[in-house]
Design brief:
The complex is a heterodimer of chains A (470) and B (377). Helix content of chain A is 46%, strand content 8%. Chain A is an alpha/beta fold. The longest helix of chain A is centred in the N-terminal third of the chain and has 24 residues. Chain B contains two helices and 31 strands. Chain B has a five-stranded mixed beta sheet, with no helix packed on it. Classes of the chains: A alpha/beta (470), B mainly beta (377). At the A-B interface, helix 2 and helix 17 of A face strand 29 of B.
Amino acid sequence: TKLTTFLRQLARQTGRELNVVLMDHAYSKPGNWRSENTYAKPTKSLFVHQVPPLGQDEKDVDVEYVEEVPIPPYDLNSVTISMAECEKYIEAVNPGEKDDDWEEQVDKTNWTMTQQRVFSKVVRALHSDRLARLTCSGNWNEPVQRRVIVDKTARRVRHLLACYSWDQKLTHWLHTTLLDCLSPLYLGIYIDVLQTLRTKCPVMVDRMLSSAPIVNRPGLSGLESLNLIVKQPWDPVASSLNEHKPQKLPGNPVIVMVPCAPMNGNFQSPRLKQWESYFASLGSVVPVIVKTGPDMYKTPLTNCLDQMVCASRVKVAQLRADYPGRHIILVGWNAGSAIAVQVALVEQVSAVVCLGFPVFTVEGRRGEPNDTLLDLRCPAFFVIGQNAASVRQEDMEDIRERMRVETGLVIVGSADDLLRVGHTKKQREGLTQSMVDRCILDEVGDFLGSILMSPRPPPLRTISNQSTNI
Amino acid sequence: DMETSACEGDVEQLQCEWKRVTNPTGPQPRPRHGHRAVAIKDLMVVFGGGNEGIVDELHVYNTATNQWFVPVTKGDIPPGCAAYGFVVDGTRILVFGGMVEYGKYSNELYELQASRWEWKRLKPRPPKHGAPPCPRLGHSFTLINNKVYLFGGLANDSDDLKNNIPRYLNDLYTLELRGNNSTAWDLPQTHGTSPPPRESHTGVAYTDKTTKKSRLVIYGGMSGCRLGDLWFLECDTMTWNKPAVKGIPPLPRSLHSATLIGHRMFVFGGWVPLVMDDVKVATHEKEWKCTNTLASLNLEKLCWEQLAVDTYENIPRPRAGHCAVGIHTRLYVWSGRDGYRKAWNNQVCCKDLWYLEVDVPAQPGRVQLVRASTQSL
């Protein structure tokens, strides 16, 4: 589809697939496929920037070749409209206001030091947002670039407000002052930022917006419309990602989400929650929930781990009884992936998916000769971040080489332990985290699909004999 | 007039029948594409190819006993290769070139002595004038008398294996097989216009019954688009020519198989252009599909013949990159890829074995027709 082609193009997997010669002669997989270890599937990399080998930069620069501009997979028109929604809104309520020298007209008398500092920092963030917007304006991938820019500004503002513990008086004052003095252009940016911030910390933002500010601007006095727009964040690729969901895995397996920490109250990381919904497109998702009481901080860590392993084992056993014959796949994030492996050692499952698998642990490195990880009997799929602190590619490859089961490995370029890609990378390559996540999900699906479709046949033995009578 | 009607007017259509070989015994080879096969008496010897990794296994199918077996080989066992050249001279099998690793092509020559199942790496003498053939895949490698004719193929001009810079070839080398097991490359001088560069075409050796003259028949291939042209190299004069062939030619194709049985070249499968039924939609040149069509070139009459394929039973699925050999009156076909169909990113290959019975007794229909006309007289 158009979406996968585009994502591949961004993930630097193209050219190859589109090349007719390689399509016709697809006898072997690219990469480090080696016949000595047929268990380890070739390592794949997503969004890893290839540094050209030294000496190649001496080559003549091809000035005639026009690099092909990828076709964005979203509907540019509708995305551009939602991208400019905040600006349009401001324009509508403030017709005909001038943009210039608003900053000089701000009356700073009677401001405290803190107020002055907060104000100038926010304005600085808005300034750089404005500059970044101008830089990417007209870019073929402007909506995605814009999304990344706003995300960054929102992060800066969030960081700043967190420094003052989201002090309610201060945030109120800031919000009122900004609404009061910003020019329409900057006001649009500010509302974009609020909108993004609200997805990250809804309670804080709602509190900041709660009391009606006294505003000189007639258009903004009615708060309902402003609140409404703040509550509707936009994502340039969300709709096309939703439209092209990955294919369901053969046999609709049960995907068990192994926890990485006990659940504290009802809070669950939005990212993990989102990944649960991603996996729901591959099969039936069953989360394992370990709840703790208020005295959670008193339980020793080992007890806590035991509880999570036990809960997962109970869940797997129960699922096997409930759905005999269905494939069961364990999925874990970070520490949860280590727990998933532990469970897979004792329970019969079809595969384990380890997202952000940690190799460096408090108890030392994984993969040492006495590590039970090497005794794993079901296929395992590892996804790690290139910049993860708890794992390095070489160590993962080394472990894989010694495992006696089929394993796959995907490296996500510039990603951390939780496979989150940094801002610079996103901006440079025109990515959003949702696009990266989709690529990871596709790789997981490919691995699981091939495991479920063709379980590995026993290794071929040469049969001696047979007089051939030639 | 007589000549033009020779093909179309031929009442006698060649009768053929596909049969799927069921339940062969012995260890089944893994489905793949880009492998090759040769026939030694009743045996079909299959080597190489790949899917998810290049195969270095050797399998033999005994058509008389319906049994696969894996001979134990010794000597300089070659690495696996795909889309390479494979010929047999008596019991001596030669392997040349092909893809040995992702993006890496070979120009090495190996010999397998099938009587002892012993491999040997050969180092043929380079040609007197010029360099030995460059590493390549998808070339044709055809034995005619005591020489193997190497034509065309695809070279990779890039040092970086991941970055393919393809170059289609149309060079012609001959490899002379000498009595004392030595071999030598030659870059023969040819006359006439050479066929344009291509790869994944086929080469077939044909010797005329009456004149005893041999020729190399090059058909189809790929040069960015699929080709359907036919070329002869007359071996005595080393002259290329493009024969005028009657009948309805099959669709252009590559990665098909062409097998000589009697005086007919049977072309099966491969990639063909996607032809739209709707006239308004122009055929997109870069869209292809696999086919399961069968064509027969009568090399005596120089015409593409009409075939009456008995579809009473099933016929093989469309495929490309399969292998085919002629054993007695049968054309054996095994595996090959199933189009671009992928299951979870894995290319799907056919795992079935078929044969085409070429020499089917004539249908009684013609006799009846004759009788009917006699009665009406």
